[in-house]
């Protein structure tokens, strides 16, 4: 695939050292407004719990705020970790969001808890916390959204019939297989599991069955990206993410450190090797460097869309990364128009 595919943004509402969750949420809104102005197609927020560097723990609430701050951008969850929630509640929340913002809401579903086991139990408050129930929960949720054509018996739902665009998310072949079987769009987390990319993509295409949602497979690949004026500046900015990854691996998670603080830390040979391996599949550099790498990723996977996650300490540098990438990736891209619709066809 050689054509320019759409770009989208995944935002974690990153809490930085010396900052507050409120400031992180404000920065997320600022990034969403910028993404819309720059022609990005989607803006997704994550669900993580008990993580000091992430303020995005209530995606439905944050989506409502971001959707109100924008007018054309598709806004969604990347994603809702379904094992943490009753499917009916998720269906009600996202059908309501779709009713409020027609044709603009995406519901990405993941099967990981996005947190530790104790917090996961507190969220769902019963013993059935296994991801093995994920396929059943997905079918149940879709049934609530589509009461007239449900694969399971469904109760009336406020907003029923207003269909957000449902995606399955994954970093393994499990969700790729399920997305294919259900005929749903699939987003692969390359930034989490780069070694499984090729197998997951092949599984999705092999298992795909056409559905009322899609006639053919629709694949998005999510990647970590830091774009700056030159490669050296981008590598400098990446120090924050590198140290934060190391802190998490050592069981000492914290807010995202500044690049100055990160580069002041002396790493052992083992730690330096871990950081190098962790960043090896990130796309870090000048616009030319990053665009070249992302185009190779599209060629490799046949991706229909690319989603970028940029964990940078300074909000201005974060926005600059989005601007540089947009300018070099899609210089003539038109702003997407809002479409009033009730179906789920991928756009």
Sum this structure up briefly.
43% of the residues lie in helices and 15% in strands.
How would you describe the overall organization of this protein?
The chain has 347 residues and is of the alpha/beta class. The protein has a single domain, classed as TIM Barrel (Alpha-Beta Barrel). Helix content is 43%, strand content 15%. It has twelve helices and nine strands. The protein has an eight-stranded parallel barrel, surrounded by nine helices. Helix 7 links the parallel strand 6 and strand 7. The longest helix is centred in the last third of the chain and has 19 residues. The relative contact order is 0.15. About 3% of the residues have low confidence.
Topology:
Elements: E1 7-11, H1 21-38, E2 42-45, H2 59-69, E3 74-81, H3 87-100, E4 105-110, H4 117-124, H5 134-145, E5 165-170, H6 173-182, E6 186-189, H7 197-207, E7 219-228, H8 231-249, H9 259-264, H10 269-279, E8 283-286, H11 287-301, E9 305-309, H12 315-329
Parallel strand pairs: 1-2, 1-9, 2-3, 3-4, 4-5, 5-6, 6-7, 7-8, 7-9
Helix pairs in contact: 1-2, 1-12, 3-5, 6-7, 8-10, 11-12
